Amino acid sequence: MDDGHSQEEYIRQVLEAYRKTPGTMGTVRRADRMLAAQFHQRGVTVTVIENAFVLAAARRLMRPADAPPLGTIRSLAYFLPVIDEVIVMRVSPDYFQYVRRKLERIARDR
Predict the structure, then answer these.
(1) What is the per-residue burial (b if ≥16 Cβ within 10 Å, else e) of 2-15?
(2) Out of 34, 63, 83, 92, which could bridge 52 as a Cys pair, Cβ 3.0 to 4.6 Å?
(3) Crossing angle for the helix pair 30-42 and 7-20, nearest 10 degrees?
(4) 72-78: long-range contacts (C-beta < 8 A, 24 or more apart)?
(5) How far is 39 from 60, CA to CA, in rounded Å?
(6) Is the Cβ–Cβ distance between 31 and 75 less than 8 Å?
(7) Distance of CA 20 to the CA centre of its chain
């Protein structure tokens, strides 16, 4: 996986990134831990997962001001489609840095 980390370290990194992602409850459940282990078994890098969190959070925050509010994300499984999307994306890592900066600005301005 990422830099040869153990499965336990991988799961810890994924769940910590999930917990810190804007729009999530900030808590981790057993099902989330199991899904993170499945990502490790599939060979999905922590970077791909973190990029998916950033992309999904930015999409949720960049909605029209008059749009109804979205509910809190309660499961790591919410991100499955975006993780799969990021896996097949052919974009520069700079794109995700751009989205991260934009997300930070939006979160700061709210």
Answers:
(1) beeeeeeebbebbb
(2) 83
(3) 120
(4) 72/23, 72/24, 72/25, 73/21, 73/23, 73/24, 73/25, 74/24, 74/25, 75/29, 75/31, 75/32, 76/14, 76/15, 76/18, 76/28, 76/31, 76/32, 76/35, 76/36, 77/31, 77/32, 77/35
(5) 23
(6) yes
(7) 9
How many alpha carbons lie under 13 Å from residue 21 in its C-beta half-sphere? 31
Each residue's pLDDT tens digit, 52-77:
999 999 999 888 889 998 999 999 99
In this prediction, residue 4 carries a pLDDT of 63
Give pTM, 2 decimals: 0.87
